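ugh ok so i messed up the first submission bc i forgot one of the chains. this is the corrected input, ALL of the components this time, i swear. 452 residues overall. if the numbers dont match what u have on ur side tell me asap before i send this to the collaborators (the ones from the other lab, u know who)
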Amino acid sequence: MPRIHFTSALSRFFPGLAEESCKGLTVREVVDEIEIKYPGIKDFILDEEGKLRKHVNIFVGEKVIHDRDKLSDSLSTDSEVLIFQALSGG
Amino acid sequence: MRILVGTSKGLILWEKDEQGWSISQVFFEGMPVSLVYVDELSGIWWASLAHRHWGQKIQYSKDEGKSWVSVVEMPRYPSDAVLSSGKRAKLKKIWSIQQRGTDIDEGIWLGTEPGGLFFNSASEEKFQLVEALWNHPSRVDENQWFGAGRDHPFIHSILVDPRDSDHIYIGVSCAGVFETTNRGKSWRPKNEGLIAAYLPNPNAEVGHDPHAMQLVRSQPDVIWQQNHCGIFKTINGGGEWQRLSEPGITPHYGFALAIDHENSQRAWVIPAMSDEERIAPGLQLKVYRTEDGGKSWEGLTRGLPQQFAFDIVFRHSFAGAGNTLVFGSTTGNLFLSEDAGDSWEVLSNYLARIESVVLLPD
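and heres the new structure output, hopefully the right one now
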């Protein structure tokens, strides 16, 4: 099953946030799954249109996903999915 | 008396004891608190967080900050809500939060960018876009709403008539003042007498730029307005606005406005140099007070920096309660007066950019 990892920055808003194993085999399915466990987290990652927020990145393995709009990138059972914030200053 | 100060890097609570004023608690440390608001009827504290990565969020506290709850169902523009560019409208920022009046039990209003007003009646447990305003012909057909300083128009002031919660005014930058008497089912512009010097027709019905508005609770037909093009007041519920300022002679341009809810003749403003130069005029930080309804303005400087002050004060960063006034600046300075502005005490020079302040009476 794909494993999903989160930036520690999200732990501040979702105490108890930890690595999860998911059943989904696309990035979209995995994000929908974690929303069930952590209600509201999807709104931190995606905008109103369901697109990946501008300053958020999702990696599968070491590569950034291709489809930021529909999150259709496929996963394999041993995929490691990482949700990170993009770097910014200020 | 306590003070809540929303800054770009946290929400700070100040309290006064025998030793004087001091910080008693910091909430949301390191986070951009774009707005703090206290619902005086319910006692609920509201904080809007403008995350750079995670979008706009709202949290509220029913126990004065001991615990905070995230709003999971954030206000959401419907999928068919589009901007003048044809792009889909998305929530950019929460600009105002406003409680209902005493005549109804529940309800909270949100003013947002790009121009949507939302209401949560509590019974629905969800913020609903006020469709009649969003679909107002002046926005949809005439394209008279536009951004200034921001990419899109935003609703920064929501004034609820204390006699009637169905009667509401809003201030939109840029569009102007709108009024509803049926809790949002229909709206009409109330901009007669305002001046939009940047438009081909400065007296246009819509397209004005109120920066901040306040309604006098003891005389709800009196509304003060700091506008892009001067200081204005109406004494007949927006039937007509009268300009109370002259460029170069009186305070004129600015954002911050505080009023006396018991005395409709008294108000304070903190001017900025100009649209082009957003600094304290002459690099001197001054509060101006009127005691005669805006006929004359007195500059108040005791305790305020009178040289090399680059501060300006944002629209939600000036608050008053009786003779107590507090304001915070873009450069992180917080000032307090307990004698109606005659003298000022520095509470801090080391805060982050101050976005909003709230005075909490005992």
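quick check: Chain A touches chain B through 18 residues (CB under 8 Å). that seems consistent at least. Residues 58 and 64 of chain A are 6 Å apart (CA to CA).
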